[in-house]
């Protein structure tokens, strides 16, 4: 699946600051194919990762925040 990487400790997206290399590494560690920093959301986007590694709007509240 494709989507934003989930920080399982906080329930938030994995944040980035325009650093594709770190997002790509994190994506591959989580069994994804390719990751990059999505500039407008400042979060790591990962292609080909299992759903369990991805942030989902309905399931993850980011410690009560959206």
Observed structural traits:
two-stranded antiparallel sheet; Defensin A-like; 15% helix; Toxin; alpha+beta; 66 residues; three-stranded antiparallel β-sheet; 1 helix; disulfide bond; globular; toxin activity; sodium channel inhibitor activity
Verbal overview:
The protein has 66 residues and is an alpha+beta fold. It has one domain (2-57): 2-Layer Sandwich (Defensin A-like), CATH 3.30.30.10. 15% of the residues lie in helices and 26% in strands. The protein is built from one helix and five strands. It has one helix at residues 20-29; strands at residues 2-4, 6-7, 12-13, 34-38, 43-47. The strands form two sheets. A three-stranded antiparallel sheet has the order 1-5-4. The chain starts with a strand and ends in a 19-residue tail after the last strand. The model has no long low-confidence stretch (mean pLDDT 90).
Question: How would you summarize this macromolecular structure in one to three sentences?
Answer:
This protein is of the alpha+beta class. Helices cover 15% and strands 26% of the residues. The protein has a single domain (2-57), classed as Knottin, scorpion toxin-like (Defensin A-like), CATH 3.30.30.10.
Topology overview:
Layout: E1 2-4, E2 6-7, E3 12-13, H1 20-29, E4 34-38, E5 43-47
Antiparallel strand pairs: 1-5, 2-3, 4-5
């Amino acid at each position: 699946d494709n989507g934003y990487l989930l920080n399982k400790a906080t329930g938030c997206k994995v944040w980035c600051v325009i650093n594709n290399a770190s997002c790509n590494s994190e994506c591959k560690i989580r069994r994804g194919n390719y990751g990059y920093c999505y500039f407008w959301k400042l979060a790591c986007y990962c292609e080909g990762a299992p759903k369990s590694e991805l942030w989902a709007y309905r399931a993850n509240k980011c410690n009560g925040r959206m």
